[in-house]
What we know:
Helices cover about 40% and strands about 20% of the residues. The protein has about 350 residues and is α+β, with helices and mostly antiparallel strands. It has a domain at about 60-180 and about 285-345: Nucleotidyltransferase, domain 5 (2-Layer Sandwich). The strands form 5 sheets. The chain has a 7-stranded mixed β-sheet, with helices on both faces. The chain has a two-stranded antiparallel ribbon with strand order 5-6. A two-stranded antiparallel sheet has the order 8-11. Helix 3 (about 180-190) crosses helix 4 (about 220-230) and helix 3 (about 180-190) packs antiparallel against helix 6 (about 265-280). Residues about 35-45 have low confidence and may be disordered.
Amino acid sequence: MSAPGTRPQWPPRPRPTAGTRPHRLLRRLLVLCLATVLALLGLGAGAVWWGTNHYGDQVTRIPDAFPSGPRPPEPTAHDGGSTFLLAGVDSRSRRPTTGSDATARLWTYGAQRSDTLMLVHLSADERTVYTMSIPRDSWVPIAGHGSAKVNAAFSWGGPPLLIQTVERLTGTRVDHFGVIDWHGFKALTDAVGGVPITVPEDSYDPVLQVHFTAGTHVMHGDEALAYVRQRHGVPGGELDRIKHQQQFLRSLAERLRAQAGLTDPLGTARMLNAMTRTVSVDDRMSNGDLRELLLGLRHLNASDARFTTAPIVRSELIHGQYALILDQVKLRTLWHAVEAGAEPSS
């Protein structure tokens, strides 16, 4: 019987049971969790979008960084990825020369050389990065100057001559160029809280007058710079120096990746701020390019990074200078395999 003054419902509404109420609560909880995850991802992606536009406008662009005249064509077999040339310059200027902190010119004839030189290829799917170090003592042709060590190209002609020299050496086209000086290197290292490095054995560099102790250490500015410059007091000399640089870059990339999480806007902002203050890039790199590079970092981990060194035939003294003679044919074959997306043979 219905209560007086009420209309009976039809069909009758079933009474909630002990079994139906938990299912309803579970469904609501799942919807709430999904909404929360989507909100966090949206916030993170939005932060990356805003951050790369905001900070991208502050990145120091190098005008006319690329050489004029003919350049190597893209190979017919190409994975669609991008090739970067990264340089560390040994400017001894007391003032920064790279990044937004720069108060001195990036390049002055004869004042700086490329102390570190790396060719980096990021695959189109942003899941593999391949890095080839080019020793600074590599004896190569430099347009207008005959043959000399590759690090002299930047000294004589700045970014355009350096890019042209590397492109002619490797037979590849460089898509983007980035450069950092000693001031920027130390500042970037400190900005990420130092970089953990495992030193294999005790050593002493008599030129830099620095001791390195075996074990894992978080290296900051001056110590990190000395480590990537060390070539005295280690058995491999220049080749051990390159190993140190590759080791540091791998660890730094992991550090940057950890601070560029999609759901960590503050970490992303700190990382972008550190990079804009210290690194200069070519004027063809747009904010969109920077955004894609930043988002691509989230895919990469240490196992996705491959490192090698340009193949060396021998070392010799040329005009009283220690020089390394490269196997140019093997170098080009190796790098073209990288660009094609194949696993190159060492």
